[in-house]
Design brief:
Structural class: mainly alpha
Number of domains: 1
Helix content: over 70%
Largest sheet: none
Length: 98
């Protein structure tokens, strides 16, 4: 799940957001905040890919990092362009980690 969430984050940063959601979010958030959350999602996606390899080894600290990165992914996807599909997958991952 962590590896898949990382791949989803990276792919969602590469693909353009839906125009309706982007227009709706521009009314409430500054454009700089959306760019910052997009960059954060990219770094969190890469970190989740790395964390997934440490989870296979069974490290407890990797579980803590995976939980933190999944929470950041959840909020980042909401603020990026109201991507509730990706945020829902992040929420499911958080639920399974807990």
């Amino acid at each position: 799940m962590i590896f898949t969430l990382g791949m989803i984050n990276i792919i969602s940063v590469i693909t353009p957001p839906l125009a309706e959601r982007l227009h709706f979010e521009k009314l409430y958030l500054p454009i700089e905040f959306m760019h910052l959350s997009k960059l954060m999602i990219l770094f969190v996606g890469i970190a989740l890919l790395i964390t997934s390899s440490y989870l296979i080894k069974g490290l407890k600290s990797a579980w803590i990092f995976a939980l933190i990165f999944a929470i950041l992914s959840f909020f980042g996807n909401i603020f990026k362009a109201l991507d509730y599909e990706e945020a829902g997958f992040a929420f499911l991952t958080i639920f399974l980690l807990i």
